[in-house]
C-alpha cells in the first residue's frame, strides 16, 4: 500500500508543477494563523506532515522559525520545495517517509498536517499515524489538522479521502487531546473551483 501511494505521489510531483495541483496555495494563510494562535515561538520544533511542495516552510523561515521539518512520501515534492528555497533550504530537515511508518527522530512542539491525514481511509492506517503523532508531539504541544470537511470532496488527485469534522478527529485522537479551535476554510483551487476544508487545533494534555 505504501509503495502504491508513494508511486502515485512521485508521479504527481514529477509530471505537474507545484502550481498545477488542486491543493496549491500561494499563501498558506489558514495554517499560519493557527500557528500564531497557539503562540508558537521561533525556537519551537515544527513538523509539517505531508508538506510536499507547500510554501508554509517558506513563510515560517521568513518569520524566523529555525527548527523545521517537512515530511512527505514524495522525494520529488520535497526537492521542488528545496530548490525553491535555495540556500535557505539547507536550514530545513527534509524527510522522505510515510507518516504511518515513520520513526520520529525528535519531538515537536507543533505537528501540522494540511490535507495528508484525510487520505488515510483505512482505520489501521489512521491508528498507525496517531501512534506516531503521540510518540512525537510533546506534552503541551499542539496539533493543527486540516482535512476536507464533511461537505468537502470525496476524492482528491484520483484517490478516495475520509472527510472529517472536529468531533470525528477528537474521537480518533482520544482523550489526550483538547480541542482549542475549529474553523472552516474554502480553498480556491488554481482553476477556480472551491474545496471545503475544516481546520482543527488541539493541545496535547495527556
Automatic annotation (TrEMBL):
GO BP: methylation
InterPro entries attached to this UniProt entry: Methyltransf_25, SAM-dependent_MTases_sf
Keywords: Methyltransferase, Transferase
Family matches, as PANTHER family: EEF1A LYSINE METHYLTRANSFERASE 2, PROTEIN-LYSINE N-METHYLTRANSFERASE METTL10
Gene Ontology terms, MF aspect: methyltransferase activity
Domain Methyltransferase: from-to ranges: 46-141
Protein's name in the database: Class I SAM-dependent methyltransferase
Superkingdom, taxonomy of origin: Bacteria
Signal peptide range in chain numbering: none
Pfam family for this entry, one: Methyltransf_25
Amino acid at each position: 500500500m505504501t509503495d502504491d501511494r508513494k508511486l502515485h505521489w512521485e508521479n504527481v510531483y514529477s509530471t505537474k508543477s507545484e502550481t498545477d495541483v488542486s491543493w496549491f496555495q500561494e499563501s498558506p494563510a489558514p495554517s499560519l494563523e493557527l500557528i500564531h494562535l497557539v503562540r508558537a515561538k521561533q525556537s519551537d520544533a515544527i513538523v509539517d506532515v505531508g508538506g510536499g511542495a507547500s510554501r508554509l516552510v517558506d513563510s515560517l523561515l521568513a518569520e524566523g522559525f529555525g527548527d523545521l521539518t517537512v515530511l512527505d512520501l514524495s522525494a520529488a515534492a520535497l526537492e521542488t520545495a528545496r530548490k525553491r528555497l535555495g540556500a535557505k533550504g539547507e536550514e530545513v530537515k527534509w524527510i522522505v517517509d510515510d507518516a504511518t511508518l515513520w520513526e520520529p527522530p525528535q519531538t515537536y512542539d507543533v505537528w501540522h498536517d494540511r490535507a495528508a491525514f484525510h487520505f488515510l481511509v483505512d482505520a489501521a492506517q489512521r491508528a498507525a499515524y496517531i501512534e506516531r503523532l503521540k510518540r512525537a508531539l510533546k506534552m503541551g504541544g499542539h496539533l493543527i489538522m486540516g482535512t476536507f470537511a464533511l461537505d468537502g470532496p470525496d476524492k482528491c488527485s484520483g484517490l478516495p479521502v475520509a472527510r472529517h469534522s472536529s468531533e470525528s478527529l477528537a474521537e480518533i485522537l482520544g482523550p489526550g487531546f483538547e480541542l482549542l479551535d475549529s474553523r472552516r476554510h474554502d480553498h480556491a483551487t488554481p482553476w477556480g473551483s472551491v474545496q471545503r476544508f475544516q481546520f482543527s487545533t488541539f493541545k496535547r494534555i495527556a
